[in-house]
Design a protein that fits this description.
mainly alpha
């Protein structure tokens, strides 16, 4: 039960910014968040690929 509040935690700045904007700007904010996910996912994928090749 203690993990549930941790999983529901969100960035307060992002939540307030999105709540104050219209739908078009919220869509742009969501696209920006997805774009910021690309580098960490690429690094994670590269590490997994290297580990898989070393097997």
């Amino acid at each position: 039960m203690t993990a549930i509040p941790i999983l529901l935690a969100q960035c307060v700045m992002c939540a307030r910014t999105a709540a104050a904007q219209n739908l078009e700007r919220v869509a742009v904010l969501n696209q920006g968040i997805l774009i910021l996910l690309i580098p960490p996912l690429a690094a994670f994928g590269a590490i997994l690929l290297m580990a898989w090749r070393r097997r």
